[in-house]
Amino acid sequence: MSDFPQTLGELRHSRHFSEERLRKRRVKDEMRENLMQRLRSDGPVFAGIVGYEDTVMPQIVNAVLSRHNFILLGLRGQAKSRILRALTTLLDPRIPYLSGCEIHDNPYDPLCSRCKQLVQEDPEGARISYLTPEQRYVEKLATPDVTIADLIGDIDPIKAAKGGHELGSEYTVHYGLLPRANRGIFAVNELPDLAGKIQVGLFNIMQEGDVQIKGYPVRLPLDVAIVFTANPEDYTARGKIITPLKDRIGSEIRTHYPASLHEGLAITAQEAWTQRDGYQLQVPPFVSEVIEQIAFVAREDKRVDKRSGVSQRLPISAMENVISNAERRAVRSGEKIVVPRIGDIYAALPAITGKLELEYEGELKGADNVSREIIRAAIARTYDGYFHGSGNMNQIVQWFDLGGEIQMRDSAGSQEMLHKLRSIQGLLDKLSALNLTGKEPAEMLVSAAEFILEGLHAHKKIGRSEERTFTAGEKQPRPQKQSFREEEDEREFRRQRRPFN
Fold first, then answer.
1. How far apart are CA 267 and CA 290, in angstroms?
2. Dist. CA 175–CA 1, nearest whole Å
3. DSSP state letter for 4
4. CATH code for 8-254?
5. Do 355 and 311 touch, CB atoms closer than 8 A?
6. What is the average pLDDT score of the chain?
7. What's the pLDDT tens digit per position in 141-169?
8. Which pLDDT score is estimated for 78?
C-alpha cells in the first residue's frame, strides 16, 4: 500500500486516481464499466455460479448496465446471497477515502462535516486510506426487530456530551449500516421481513439518493448501489413489502433451481466438502446421481411444500453425510479407499429430513418415511438411466426366488461383502453397464453390486427388509383354477339368467 498516495496532496498528483474521475464516477458507473470490460473478455460474469448462464445472468447484466437497484426473487438455496456477494468482483481493486471517516468519504468531495473541515484545514496533508472490494460490501439480514437507527443512524447523546456539541449537530450522529456502505454495495436479505415503516426509510436513498437522520437537518447524498433478496411467496403477499418501495426497485430478477441433473451435479461437486484428509475418496457416479435425484424427486413430490421449495443444500449436505458414513466404515474396516454405497444414503437421512417442509399428507406419513420413499424413487430413476428399465436381470431375480438372501450391512467391510455377492448368479456380470470391468477395487465392486440390488428393489423385483436383507419379492397370489364341476355350475347359472328371446 506504500506505493499509493498517503496524503491528499500526493493523491492530487497521482495518475491512478484523477480528481475528475473520482468526482464524477459513482459506484454504479464503476460496476458498469468493469462489467463491460468483463463482457469483452468473453469469460463468465461471476465465477462459481452454475446453471444461470442463459436465464438469470443476462438479467443481472442488464440491471447493472442500466445502473438499477435490483431484487432477486427465489426460493431458499438458489444462490441469491452468493450472487449478491459476487457483485464485489465488479468493483475496483481499491479506492481512496479520507482516513478515519465512518462513511468512507471521497477525498475530493467529502460529505460529512468532519471531513469537510479536515480538508479545509489541511488540503495537502489530510491522510488517505484505501478500501478493498470486500470492505465496500455491507449486508443486512432483514428481521422484524430492525430499526431505522440500525439502517440509517441515530443521534448519540454520549458523543454530544463528550464533544460539547448540540444534539442537532452532525458531529453527534451515529451512522447506521446504509451510510457506512457509502461508495459501495448495500444488500438486504429477505426484504419482506423488514417492517413497513422501516421500508419507508429506504425511499429517499433509492429515488433522490440521500438519507435524513432522526428528523434533524442532516442530509447525506450517499453513493451506494442497493440490492435485495426475497422469497417470491412473501414478496407477493399483501402487506409484506410496500408498493412504493417495489416501484423504486429498478429490476426484478427471478432465480430457479438447477434445470438439469448435470447442473445439479456440478453445483454439488463444487460446494460439498469432499476433500477429506487421510483416505483416498472415490465417489461412484451412480451414487452422486442418486443423491442429486433426491432433490429433483422431492421438488416434484406432492407431499413436499412447493412454496418452501427444496434447497440445493439438500444434496450438498447429503453428499457430505454419505461420504462421512463411508469414511467411518473404512476406518473401522481398515480399508484404504473410501467408496460410498447406496446404503450410506439411507444413513444420511438426518441431512435430508430437516430440509423438507411437508404438506399435511406428508406430515401424517412422517418425514422419515417420506424421505425413504423419495430415496427409493431416486434410485429407480438412476437405475433406469443405466439399465434402461428393469433390464435383463432374470437370473438375479431367480436366485432370490429360489430362496437366496443376502444382508448388506453398511458397516460391513468390502472384502466380506464381495465374497457374499459372488454367490448371486449373474450379479457381477452386470457391472459393465456401470462402466466397470470387474478388476476394480473391492470397495467399488460392492458399491456397484449394491446399487443393482437396490434398483431391483426399487422396481419391486426383489424385497428388502429394514435390516437391509435382500430377499425374494412379494408375488401377487394367482387366482386358483376352478374345478370342472365348478365351471359347469357357473355355465348353468349364466344360462338360467339369460333372457328369453
1. 15
2. 28
3. S
4. 3.40.50.300
5. yes
6. 88
7. 998 889 888 888 877 766 666 666 665 56
8. 94
Closest CA to 191 of 87, 74, 28: 74
> 86-145 pLDDT, tens per residue?
999 999 999 999 999 989 999 999 988 889 889 999 989 999 999 999 999 999 999 888
Copy the grid coordinates of residue 457. Answer: 428393489
Read off the pLDDT of residues 353-404 as tens digits, 9 standing for 90 and up.
999 999 999 999 999 999 999 999 999 999 999 997 546 899 999 999 999 9
Rounded Cα distance, 237 and 314, in Å: 27
Quick one: residue 403, left, alpha or beta (phi over 0 = left, psi -120 to 50 = alpha)?
A: left
Rounded Cα distance between 317 and 345, Å, is: 11
**d(C-alpha 186, C-alpha 179), whole Å:** 9
Q: How far apart are CA 429 and CA 261, in angstroms?
A: 28
Q: At what angle do helices 285-300 and 442-458 cross, to 10 degrees?
A: 30
pLDDT at 428: 92
**Assigned C-alpha cell, 88:** 464485489
- Among the listed residues 109, 161, 434, 402, the one whose alpha carbon sits nearest the alpha carbon of residue 290: 434
**CB contact set of 256 (below 8 Å; sequence gap of 6+):** 51, 55, 56, 74, 78
DSSP 145: T
pLDDT score of 215? 59
Query: How high is the pLDDT of residue 483?
Result: 53
What count of residues does the chain have? 501
Cα angle, residue 363 at apex, residues 358 and 364 outer, rounded to 5°: 150
The three three-digit cell numbers of residue 481, written as one number:
383354477
CA distance 339 to 467: 21
Q: Each residue of 209-233: b (16+ CB within 10 Å) or e?
A: eebebbeeebebebbbbbbbbbbbe
> For residue 231, which amino acid is it?
N
Return the pLDDT at 211. 76
Instruction: Give residue limits of the domains in the chain.
Output: 8-254, 261-472
What are the CA-CA distances from residue 451 to residues 121, 370, 430 (Å)?
A: 77, 20, 11
394: cell is: 432374470
Per residue in 412-460, pLDDT (tens digit) is 899 999 999 999 999 999 999 999 988 999 999 999 999 999 999 999 9
Distance CA 206, CA 219 (A): 14
pLDDT at 177 over 50: yes
- Residue appearing with cell numbers 442500466: 66
- List phi, psi (to 5°) of 173: -80, 135
Helices (H) and strands (E) counted in the chain, each on its own, are 24, 16
- Quickly state the pLDDT bin for 238 (edges 50, 70, 90): very low
